[in-house]
Amino acid sequence: MYAVLQHPPVDVRDFDDDIYGRADALRRAVDTVSGPRFVGVPFGPGFGLATVVRWTCAIVPDPLELRPIGARAADALIAGIQSGAMRLETFDRVLGIGEAPARAHGLSSAESIANMSAPMPVKELLPAMSQRALHRMDKWLADEEFARKATAYYLVGTARLVTAGVPLTF
């Protein structure tokens, strides 16, 4: 399903050299793994979450620029939930989170456990982001690696949701 991609599938020099250009480049990179054939496919062998995190490092090296990009994607998810357009289960479905998708795509037991447990802190952060409850966002604000992982989940999730026909504004 996935070719192993060490570098982002976009050239950042093709985009404006500011936060908006880097956000566009990152979304374009994420779009390459969010088309119809990827909806419901878990992160797994050959293409893990670490790949998208590497893309975030290459395209948006400054974590102060990355957090607003991730927050904007999270806001789209929150708005989708609040409007009734989706539920968190829909997010799980398009990201292939769960036992059935893991089995269907040949993930090992360890990969299957990671597939189901890794997104939990990211999903648990959404209510705090919705309320802008900074006191509950310590990990997001202080841990760059967590912020990159959360941004990767939010970007891939929103792109796949849109591909699946969920009306999100992003």
Describe the protein in words.
The chain is mainly α. It has one domain. The chain contains 9 helices and no strands. 61% of the residues lie in helices and 0% in strands.
Number of helices: 9
Mean pLDDT: 86
Q: Count the strands?
A: 0
Please estimate the helix content.
55-70%
Largest sheet: none
Quick one: overall form? globular
SSE string: HHHHHHHHH
SS content category: mainly alpha
* Strand proportion: under 5%
Q: State the low-pLDDT regions, or none.
A: none
Topology:
Layout: H1 19-31, H2 49-59, H3 63-83, H4 88-94, H5 99-104, H6 109-117, H7 120-130, H8 138-142, H9 144-163
Helix pairs in contact: 1-2, 2-9, 3-7, 3-9, 4-9
Key traits:
9 helices, mainly alpha, 170 residues
Quick gist of this model?
The chain is mainly alpha-helical and 170 residues long.
